[in-house]
Write a structure and sequence with these properties.
single chain, 442 residues, alpha/beta, 46% helix
């Protein structure tokens, strides 16, 4: 297990030193890794857990540390965080093992006194327990309790009031592993059977019939994945394509397509009949769209490295999906490093970009055509604010109810007005906003 802990340490140190993206750093370290599936799961829980709880862990360490944390090397600070996380958040790890393994790493990655320092501090906290602020409801106390920067906590409290603490809590809950069934190649029952043969338990999602929640395993290592029977995609994100409801033969624009989950979902719904133009501003990101399409057997996608705010087309589209770039506040539980971005609550620039993309894409829509605007944030300014502003200046557009046979009753109830937000829950989807607009014929 020491090798797994050392791998986790290298990922955390890279994030701390180079501001690397957590998901990318983890995937790169796991690519062709010799670690077992069990060890990979351990590394993932440790690096994601430490990142989620970083503020809480640092508060605990600073209470008993003889050295200011900012003076510690990146490696020793990361080792401390890893040790504390194992001690207080991983029930299956004995505290003695967490301490001893941390001391071994400190001896390898620190100087002579590092072993003694790490040993003393972790043993002190093992005896005293995880400290909490004496205040209970102040912004600083909530910041420590839920491990969110004070700036972000203050925004949640101001925006959501009494609901803020529940949302902050859910941001720290481990999300379910969700996959989307590839309807071009299999059915839900067939895929469940195939997964069971590979030792994977699966249950149906709560928001869409196209979603399966997996209770164990590394999906990308399964033969069912290699055969293109499914792709990894949260069930909230699956709602975007269902809301747009493209039909076979439609001409469709996916304005912000990478990495391709929603693009391929629409192609599956269209039964590989019609045409989808997939845009992304970066050519490199479009490669993932092409690769995913090839694995799933999708044949109707054409990619274009274009800016969705200025893109022009020779003829209008029947359906357009604008899954706009956003703050990502709805997916913090999957990407906890998001909450540590600088100026995270300065949304003005994002909103300007979102409005520009929506404005341009709407001009490309055919009469009687439909457009879905979606984001993976729970921020009303980026969601309802952008849509309402657009509708006020475009009377030729109107909201239409969102319905689809693949959506559950729970999901249908959320979007019956044509616009709604999914909030994260333990068994549900990520935070996600969807609005469906129709361009009137007259």
């Amino acid at each position: 297990m020491l090798q797994a802990r050392e791998t986790a340490l290298k990922i955390l140190a890279e994030i701390e030193k180079n501001q690397a993206y957590l998901n990318i750093s983890f995937q790169e370290k796991m690519h062709d890794s010799s670690l077992s599936a069990r060890d990979i799961a351990f590394v993932k829980e440790l690096v994601y857990g430490v990142t989620k709880r970083k503020i809480t862990l640092d508060y605990a360490a600073s209470r008993y540390s003889s050295v200011k944390l900012k003076k510690l090397s990146v490696y020793i600070l990361s080792i401390l965080r890893m040790g504390l996380y194992q001690m207080f958040y991983m029930d299956k790890i004995p505290q003695s093992a967490a301490v001893n393994e941390s001391v071994k790493l400190a001896g390898k990655y620190g100087h002579g006194a590092s072993r003694g320092y790490v040993n003393a501090l972790l043993r002190k906290l093992a005896k005293e327990g995880l400290p909490e602020p004496t205040e209970t409801e102040s912004i600083s106390a909530l910041s420590v309790r839920y491990s969110h920067p004070e700036e972000l906590v203050a925004w949640y409290v101001k925006t959501f009031g009494e609901k803020a603490q529940e949302l902050l809590k859910q941001n720290n809950v481990m999300p379910p592993l969700c996959v989307r069934i590839n309807s071009l190649r299999t059915t839900a029952e067939q895929l469940k059977t195939k997964l069971a043969e590979e030792g994977i338990e699966a249950r149906s999602g709560s928001l869409t019939h196209s979603a399966l929640l997996l209770t164990n395993g590394s999906p990308q290592r399964l033969s069912a994945y290699a055969e293109g029977l499914f792709t990894v995609q949260d069930q909230s994100a699956q709602l975007a394509a269902l809301a747009l409801s493209p039909k076979p033969g439609n001409r469709v624009l996916d304005a912000c397509a990478a990495p391709g989950g929603k693009t391929t979902h629409m192609a599956e719904m269209m039964e590989n009949q019609g045409d989808i133009t997939a845009l992304d501003i970066y050519e490199k990101r479009l490669r993932s769209v092409t690769q995913t399409a090839q694995r799933l057997g999708v044949l109707i996608i054409t990619t274009c490295a274009c800016d969705a705010a200025t893109y022009k087309a020779e003829k209008p589209f029947d359906k357009i999906l604008v899954d706009a770039p956003c703050s990502g506040l709805g997916v913090i539980r999957r990407r906890p490093d998001i909450k540590y971005k600088e100026n995270l609550t300065d949304f003005a620039g994002l909103v300007t970009t979102q409005k520009a993309i929506l404005e341009n894409c709407a001009s490309l829509l055919a009469k009687d055509g439909e457009l879905v605007y979606s984001t993976c944030t729970v921020n009303p300014m980026e969601n309802e604010g952008v849509v309402q502003s657009f509708l006020e200046s475009h009377p030729e557009f109107s909201l239409v109810p969102i319905t689809h046979s693949e959506m559950s009753q729970e999901a249908l109830a959320l979007f019956e007005t044509g616009m709604g937000t999914v909030y994260p829950t333990p068994e549900g989807g990520d935070g996600f906003f969807i609005a469906k607009l129709k361009r009137n014929a007259t």
